[in-house]
Specification:
This protein is an alpha+beta fold. It has one domain. The protein is built from 3 helices and 2 strands. A two-stranded antiparallel ribbon has the order 1-2. A hairpin with a 2-residue loop joins strand 1 and strand 2.
């Protein structure tokens, strides 16, 4: 558990340092993501992005357990 928390912390720090380059990745703007803009109201729900990230994390954890 300690090693896992350290790795997650290091990944968070690296993501924070590389935010300029990570912002250019089109996650959150994939086809199928819901974005509604009406007068004075904006709603964004990245459903496809959530599915893609979920599949990627599930595959990564599956490979690490083997």
């Amino acid at each position: 558990m300690n090693r896992f928390l350290i790795i997650v912390g290091v990944l968070c720090v690296l993501a924070g340092l590389g935010w300029r380059w990570l912002a250019r990745i089109p996650f959150g703007r994939l086809p199928g993501d819901i974005h509604i803009v009406r007068g004075g109201f904006s709603f964004h729900f990245p459903i496809v992005t959530c599915i893609v990230i979920s599949v990627a994390v599930s595959a990564l954890l599956w490979f690490l357990r083997r």
